[in-house]
Amino acid sequence: MSLEPPPGYYGVCGNAPDAERRGLILDWVVNRRIATGWRVESRSGSQAVLVRGQPVNHVLHALLALLSCGLWAVAWAGLSVVNKVERIALTVDAQGQVVTVRAP
């Protein structure tokens, strides 16, 4: 799937996009990411931080492990390994190109 905006988002003469057009480019890219399971954590004029995944609720799993005499600890360990939270920062530069940076 291409993350580049459709034709027409850039000026007819090939000029660099203004702040409003960069915001539209970012909106388009964010909407494409939302359709694939990402959610918006924060958004400014030309930058957005998106997140995918849910953190493990360790308090709940500790209680379940206690109530099941430690049997739930196996499932808890598996969830801790498999469940990952991903963050990316999307920025639209002055030329209208979308820059994606993976965040910790």
Can you characterise this structure?
The chain is of the alpha+beta class and 104 residues long. The protein has one domain (19-103). 37% of the residues lie in helices and 23% in strands. The chain has helices at 19-35, 58-67, 72-82, and strands spanning 39-43, 47-52, 86-92, 98-103. It has a four-stranded antiparallel sheet, covered by helices on one side. The chain is rod-shaped. The two termini are 24 Å apart. The relative contact order is 0.20. The mean pLDDT is 85. Keywords: Membrane, Transmembrane, Transmembrane helix. Residues 30-90 form the DUF8108 domain. Pfam families: DUF8108_N. InterPro entries: DUF8108_N (IPR058962).
Give a quick rundown of the structure.
The protein contains 3 helices and 4 strands, in the order H-E-E-H-H-E-E. It has 104 residues and is α+β, with helices and mostly antiparallel strands.
Task: Set out the fold topology.
Layout: H1 19-35, E1 39-43, E2 47-52, H2 58-67, H3 72-82, E3 86-92, E4 98-103
Antiparallel strand pairs: 1-2, 2-3, 3-4
Q: How many helix segments?
A: 3
Q: Evaluate the radius of gyration.
A: 20 Å
Task: List SSEs in N-to-C order.
Answer: HEEHHEE
Low-confidence region ranges: none
Question: What's the overall geometry?
Answer: rod-shaped
How many domain regions?
1
Mean pLDDT: 85
Question: How much helical structure, as a percent, in the residues?
Answer: 25-40%
Largest sheet: 4 strands, antiparallel
Percent strand = 15-25%
Main-sheet strand order equals: 1-2-3-4
Content-based structural category? alpha+beta
Instruction: Please provide the count of β strands.
Output: 4
Tell me the span between the first and last alpha carbons: 24 Å
Domain DUF8108: 30-90
Transmembrane segments: 59-79
InterPro entries: DUF8108_N
Protein name: DUF8108 domain-containing protein
